[in-house]
Design brief:
The chain is mostly beta strands. It has one helix at about 5-15; strands at about 15, 25-30, 35-40, 50-55, 60-65, 70, 75, 80-85, 100, 105-110. It has a four-stranded antiparallel β-sheet, with no helix packed on it. A hairpin with a 2-residue loop joins strand 6 (about 70) and strand 7.
Length: about 130
């Protein structure tokens, strides 16, 4: 995706903020006709470490493995904490948002409302 288009896309559809934003190493937002899809790299984070909520018009993602420097299988785990918020565009159907975590990638599907065709209304003459 062209970087200029990407920056314009972020500015026009999402207003990003979050005090731990720099801790999220990489994320992409992909748009198609039916939805937006946010993909975030969260290496070392499991499902039970995640909190994903929609509050008013914001998608709030928090991840905290809370097991700082714990030794697991002979390796030490590093404590990781992420927090990121996205302001949702009004075209997003918040009731149908879904997500999955697979191989360290969190994918959040943000479906758009179905576009309705204008309905023609017949006028009766009496």
């Amino acid at each position: 995706m062209n970087m200029i288009l990407r920056d314009h896309f972020f500015d026009s559809f999402f207003n990003n903020f979050g005090k731990f934003e720099r801790d999220i190493s990489h994320y992409d937002i992909i748009e198609n006709e039916e939805s937006f899809n946010i993909q975030i790299e969260l290496a070392g984070i499991r499902k039970e470490h995640l909190s994903i909520k929609v509050h008013e018009s914001h998608l709030i993602i928090k991840a905290d493995n809370k097991k700082a420097n714990e030794k697991v299988d002979g390796d030490y785990r590093v404590h990781k904490r992420y927090e990121k918020s996205f302001k949702l565009h009004s075209d997003i159907d918040q009731e149908k948002i879904s997500c999955k975590l697979e191989n360290g990638i969190l994918s959040i599907n943000l479906p758009k409302f179905e576009k309705r065709q204008p309905k023609e209304i017949k006028v009766e003459v009496k």
